[in-house]
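Fold in tokens:
===
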Amino acid sequence: AGYSVGEIAAFAAAGVFDAPTAMSLASARAACMDAAAAGASTGLLGVSGATDAGLAALCARFDLEVAIRIDPGSAVLGGLRDCLQAAAAEGDARGWHCTPLKVSLASHTRWMREAVDGFDGSLAATALQRPARPLASNALGRVHTAADARTALAHQIAQTVRWDVCMDLIAAQR
């Protein structure tokens, strides 16, 4: 299992591709995401001490998305910077711990959708293998085939990282 761009390293460790390919894919992924982020001032906000319902309400009120689900009360939210700032003030007022992250894009949200196609093109030009070891994906859960690997790596850019699900999959391996 890997977390965000760390998923590329996890896929390499599982035998989907080699280390030089992982480095090339990480660079291509970053370029696609930077290009997608160029049109809007977006970012991420860490929130802990909330409830699922509270996070959902905050997202709805400020047009945010859950970028990373860590556990039931902790998440990273993504969206426009001014909305994140207002959400942080409201979260803090509710007694939650809100931390603006020092990133300039809303990874794992709809603001990265255009990056998916670009990165999928990079993956299409890359030979992928079936994982040789158990592999958990943030986007698909368990990855079994090279086709699953391609889908998972492309889609996780603009979809919620389900770190909680990955941890559950790892725990089930014991």
User: Anything to note?
Assistant: The chain has a mean pLDDT of 91.
